[in-house]
From TrEMBL, chain A:
Protein name as catalogued: FMNH2-utilizing oxygenase
Residues that bind FMN: 67, 166
GO terms for MF: monooxygenase activity; oxidoreductase activity, acting on paired donors, with incorporation or reduction of molecular oxygen
InterPro entries the record matches: Diverse_substr_monoxygenases, Luciferase-like_dom, Luciferase-like_sf, NTA_MOA
Domain spans labelled Luciferase-like: 38-321
Keyword Membrane: no
Organism this protein belongs to: Streptomyces subrutilus
Protein family according to the UniProt entry: Belongs to the NtaA/SnaA/DszA monooxygenase family.
Pfam family, one: Bac_luciferase
Record's keyword annotation contains Flavoprotein: yes
Keyword terms of this UniProt record: Flavoprotein, FMN, Monooxygenase, Oxidoreductase
Classification via SUPFAM superfamilies: Bacterial luciferase-like (SSF51679)
UniProtKB/TrEMBL annotation, chain B:
InterPro entries: Diverse_substr_monoxygenases, Luciferase-like_dom, Luciferase-like_sf, NTA_MOA
Keywords from the named record: Flavoprotein, FMN, Monooxygenase, Oxidoreductase
Full protein name: LLM class flavin-dependent oxidoreductase
CDD domains: Nitrilotriacetate_monoxgenase
Pfam families for the chain: Bac_luciferase (PF00296)
MF terms (GO), sorted A to Z: monooxygenase activity; oxidoreductase activity, acting on paired donors, with incorporation or reduction of molecular oxygen
Residues that, per the record, bind FMN: 98, 152, 223
């Protein structure tokens, strides 16, 4: 068993945790034209099942599924009218659920946009993903400040300011988490003698009140197997760091150098302390896009070829690694020393780079004693070394035995 | 009848849920939450060549007298998530989910259904329900703002908006041609613009056209407005009239409304919910049915049920004694919250009067009265008896088929699949193999053509 990371200094020799970010044909805009890709299949279950199965064969901790409530676009605030890039996505929660029965160990982490969704719906959807996957669910919470996305819902005249978007997202996660706790683990009693199916003293109103919404509860879905599925978020500074600090179990940090990683880690850990959550485990992962080949020139040439197809050099909001699996292993271990406990890797072109990760990088890390050789747990929390938390309401019931639901 | 060709029966399976059809105290009853239960149930339905599996939905735990109702099954998983997972363990079975039009937004629901249709290769259906109450609303951002009389106006506009989103891709846009570099043939794929009373939205829908074009649409409300809504745009009705006379009246009423919308008789399937109890002899089945009713309606359950009508605390009454002599509290039902059944009793004083008369005439206790007046098993008898009644109801136009709700989870369907289905197949009124792969194929309804997308015209003009 790995030791739960704490916000005190993580061990710099603990095995790494690895996640892979799945999106379309890969991160590069021309990835869908890579040989071996089946671009016609992007909207089939088969495509996603194959990718997740590949990641599971590589013993990855989890996969994330990117999503948004708008068509992909390279323009900042509306559709870009391009016809040469992948456009269209299937709902991430449904995709994760569709592959859950076909996999056994790997964590399934769909993206969810807090800005436009109902915490009540998200809470039961992710709880159910946890039920159907037997404890392998998480979610990646994100915000949207895009005007085009807001127009798809028509409820808000303009996007909220960024800080407020993240505050709202933190409230969203708080409501979702309370709903997960709103059923104590042993609420279902099936007591034939008294005719009671549940012990309603173990079901709790959450009474969440925030500036943008309120939720009464309890959830309609019983507490998920992990108690609390794993909440993750991507951070690139400021308000996004505060969201990770306040709400997440795993944060992905888009840092481009060891120094930047160290600074980011320190900033988030400090924010975690000021949120009063310093004693709660928090994984901080590096976020990285990768183009991998057995020799470095081949990787560079492949990336250039994709750039030529796309008509522009590839850029990303995080560091892009182009090179060999051994070179990537060096870089990950170097970053680990900056306080990162794992990495979320975005394959440049999934058809090529995902198998390169699972079949080349993983063995390389295993040789160095830096990655698992077999799945050591059945739940995502177990893989991440996170304990299963007790329901916050269960704790309260034992303290004040009289505090049941309002009569 | 010999001149009329035999109608083919549609059968579906309703996962037993949060109501008192379920006998959770039976030692054979399993979990309502474990995915294994859903897998077992779905595979049984698919083995029996059923059209689809059906999930109901509720968005707030029911309460009675200010406390969470604890006598029936409490708790259910999320509809979309379970159906998507079931798509991974079945191949042909349709997947019908109940989704409310009041506490959701069209963009999100449309992309969930379009995604489910892709992920199941054309097996998705949407049962549109319209519960609107403030009680449920307390779980949502919007709150309980929707007045009752607006429930169907929002539902209608919700559905038509969702259809505009489904139709915003006509199915020809995806080129995905790596050689030429054209992923899309049309730069404006998914463009839509909808301006209406409830929704004012525009932009790009981000799920390409799904195998069925749109999911199959069900409706499940019983009011006049509900029936009109169904006639105007649903493919099927999930109904509650499963006896010969009531069924025929309902059937004729609803099918009679289709012409006004330019639709034909066979464009709307009527599929009432139905329960069943099987036995080796008819007498044995009736005996079992009686026992099942006693298990479903305990003394406490009977008192709670009476409170739906009386709208007041009746916990002091003896379930084995006579009906209360006090009158129901009229006005908004504040005692039982989150229950659709409460809305059936729109004249509680009259209901109470009728029940008292019945109880007095027959000497019934509270519990016996509730057992006598609440829904009983639709089909009781040997497999042969049940197959015959199902067939005769369908041939007599009391229904096009049934959505079966067993009282045991998840194994309650097995015996039906093993004994009744083969008899229906022998009678030539139920398929032995799936003829097609999509739910539309099973129901015999065509894939709709995409209407010209509104957004592209708006943008072009
Ligand atoms: C057979 C049947 C099943 C229903 N199932 C549900 C359900 O699962 N969830 C729900 O919220 N409402 C359900 N309803 C309620 C109706 O869909 C509808 O919202 C409500 O009855 C108000 O509409 P009405 O006045 O037309 O009946 C059901 C109704 C019927 C007749």
């Amino acid at each position: 068993m790995s030791v739960p990371p704490s916000s005190s200094t993580p061990s710099s020799s603990a095995p790494l945790h690895l996640a892979v970010a799945l999106d379309g044909a890969g991160r590069h805009p021309a990835a869908w034209r890579e040989p071996g890709t089946r671009p016609q299949a992007l909207f089939t279950a088969r495509y996603w099942a194959d990718a997740v199965t590949e990641a599971e064969a590589g013993l990855f901790d989890f996969v994330t599924f990117e999503d948004a409530l708008a068509l992909q676009s390279s323009a900042p605030d509306g559709p870009d009218e391009r016809t040469d890039r992948v456009r269209g996505r299937l709902d991430a929660v449904l995709t994760a659920a569709r592959v859950a029965p076909l996999t056994r160990h790997i964590g399934l982490v769909p993206s969810v946009t807090a800005t436009h969704t109902e915490p009540f719906h998200i809470s039961k959807a992710v709880a159910t993903l946890d039920h159907v996957s037997r404890g392998r669910a998480g979610l990646r919470v994100q915000v949207s400040g895009r005007a085009d996305e807001a127009r798809h819902f028509g409820r808000r005249t303009g996007p909220l300011p960024e800080a407020e978007l993240y505050e709202e997202a933190a409230d969203h996660v708080e409501a979702v988490r309370r709903l997960w706790d709103s059923w104590e683990d042993d609420a279902e009693i099936r007591d034939v003698a008294t005719g009671r199916f549940v012990d309603r003293e173990k079901l709790h109103y959450i009474d969440f009140e925030g500036p943008h919404f309120s939720v009464r509860g309890p959830s309609i879905t019983p507490r998920p197997p992990q108690g609390q599925p794993v909440v993750t978020a991507l951070g690139d500074g400021g308000a996004s760091y505060r969201l990770i600090a306040r709400s997440a179990d795993v944060g992905y940090l888009a840092a481009r150098s060891p120094d930047a990683a160290r600074t980011a880690v320190a900033a988030v850990r400090e924010a975690r302390e000021s949120a009063g959550l310093g004693d709660r485990p928090l994984h901080l992962f590096g976020e990285l896009t990768v183009f991998l080949d057995d020799d470095a020139e081949a990787a560079a040439a492949r990336r250039e070829r994709l750039d030529a197809l796309a008509g522009a050099p590839f850029e990303d909001d995080t560091e892009v690694f182009t090179g060999t699996p051994a070179g990537l292993a060096d870089l990950l271990l170097e970053r680990r020393a900056a306080g990162l406990t794992g990495f979320r890797l975005r394959p440049g072109a999934t058809a090529h780079d995902l198998p390169a990760l699972t079949r080349k990088l993983v063995p390389e890390l295993q040789r160095r004693g830096a990655f698992r050789r077999a799945y050591e747990a059945d739940t995502l929390r177990g893989l991440l070394g996170l304990e299963r938390p007790a329901s916050r309401y269960a704790a309260r019931t034992t303290l004040t035995a009289t505090a049941g639901p309002a009569a | 009848m010999s001149t009329k060709p035999l109608k083919q029966i549609h059968l579906a399976a309703h996962f037993p849920g949060v109501n008192n059809t379920t006998v959770w105290s039976d030692p054979a009853a399993g979990s309502h939450i474990d995915f294994d239960s859903f897998v077992h149930f779905a595979r049984t339905a698919e083995r029996a060549k059923f059209d689809f599996l059906f999930l109901a939905e509720g968005l707030r735990l029911r309460e009675q007298g200010g406390r969470i109702y604890d006598l029936d099954v409490v708790g259910r998983p999320d509809t979309f998530t379970v159906l998507a997972a079931l798509a991974g363990v079945t191949e042909r079975l349709g997947l019908t989910g109940t989704i409310n039009s009041t506490f959701n937004e069209p963009y999100e629901v449309a992309r969930q259904f379009a995604s489910l249709d892709h992920l199941s290769e054309g097996r998705a259906a949407w049962n549109v329900v319209t519960s609107w109450d403030a009680f449920t609303g307390e779980n949502f951002r919007r709150g309980g703002f929707l007045p009752r009389e607006e429930r169907y106006s929002r539902a209608r506009e919700f559905l038509s908006t969702a259809i505009e989103l489904f139709d915003s891709w006509d199915g020809t846009e995806l080129a995905a041609d790596a050689g030429s570099g054209a992923f899309l043939r049309d730069a404006r794929a998914g463009a839509f613009a909808h301006r209406g009373q409830h929704f004012d939205i525009e932009g790009r829908f981000n799920v390409p056209r799904s195998p069925q074009g749109r999911p199959v649409v069900f409706q499940a409300g019983d009011s006049d407005e509900g029936r009109e809504f169904a006639a105007s745009g649903a493919d099927a009705i999930f109904g509650r009239h499963a006896t010969l006379d009531e069924g025929r009246t309902f059937y004729a009423d609803v099918k009679g409304r289709l012409a006004a919308y330019g639709r034909t008789h066979d464009q709307l399937k009527i599929l009432p919910a139905a329960t069943f109890v099987l036995g080796d002899t008819d007498a044995e089945a009736h005996e079992t049915a009686h026992e099942v009713r006693r298990l479903q309606v305990s003394g406490q359950t009977a008192i709670k049920y009476l409170e739906h009508v009386w709208n007041r605390d009746l916990s002091g009454y003896d379930p084995d004694g006579p009906l209360p002599d006090v009158d129901p509290e009229v006005g908004e039902n504040t005692i039982a919250l989150g229950r659709a059944s409460v809305r059936q009793f729109n004249d509680p004083l009259a209901t109470a009067r009728q029940w008292r008369e019945l109880a007095e005439a027959k000497g019934l206790s509270i519990r016996e009265l509730v057992i006598a007046t609440t829904s009983r098993q639709t089909f009781v008898g040997t497999a042969d008896t049940v197959a015959r009644s199902i067939d005769s109801l369908v041939q007599a136009d009391a229904a096009d088929g049934f959505i079966l709700v067993p009282h045991i989870t998840p194994g309650g369907l097995d015996v039906f699949a093993d004994t009744v289905v083969p008899l229906l197949q022998e009678r030539g009124v139920f398929r032995s193999e799936y003829e097609g792969s999509t739910l539309r194929d099973h129901l015999g309804i065509a894939v709709p053509e995409a209407a010209p997308p509104t957004g592209r015209q708006v943008a072009a003009s």
